[in-house]
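Record Actin-crosslinking protein, 303 aa.
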Amino acid sequence: MVKPLSFKGDKKVKKRKRTTAEELPSSTYGNDGGGELAPATKYHEVPTTTAEADEDEENTWVSADALLDIAGPTVLVLATSPPTCLACDAMGRVFTSKLENLVDGRPGTAEPHDVRQVWVANRVVGSEGRFTLKGFHGRYLGCDKYGLLFATKEAVSQEETFSIRLADEGKEEGMFEVQTMRETLLSVDGEKEPPEPRGDAKLKKKEAKEGEGEMEKEDREDEDDVEASCRIRIRMQAKFKPKHKVEKAERVRAKISRKELEDEVGRRLEDDEVKKLKKARREGNYHEAMLDVKVKGKHDKFA
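=>
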């Protein structure tokens, strides 16, 4: 038998021995000794640790609600039906990619299934609301003077920076508009197949006037359609969202075992005392509550 090469100093790999049905004692089988395994021995569930649960929660995708939320890996969900997002290939060609990871087809639950759909957002230093978007291949999203999107440049210029702002109030929350250096907006032409992303949409908002003709009304309706195509939902990883970071810090601060509390107090604690101290740790008045418990213990000692 040919064995793989081994070298001095290599660690020996220990093989896992799997327990088969033949190797189990007969007591684990039915009365006849040949039936199915008893329910208690069929499965062995490995309990999920707190660290693993926290890691899973951090890697989930959530929607950005404010400008300050935008950071790290993002997915730019476009206003198409069915939902698509902005993506690029290794050659820097930008296109729309259909989203597959959705709950009931809702864009607000979108998650990427392809690395090409992910853009890493970074805020431009010294600016407010200006970002760069880097693709999976290490090149930045840009828009030329014709409104064509590309992702071919490794360095950042004005064409590779975008102003992101919240969409108009009074409409669906959590929607953003992405503006280029030429004051045009990223949009999508949903009438084409597949939908085509563009960077040349211009918004000209007009107020309705008395005696307005039918032609002007139609023009205004067309502008509303353009505005809808410019609305982008930004999905991001939960661990980069400031609100999530604060909540996680509070949870970590609140975690303390009964043994640690008893060691600090110097005696065994009642259940209500443990609950009181854990609640105080979450709310920020832990030291005052600990002092009260210590004083109460001294009084009980000499009672």
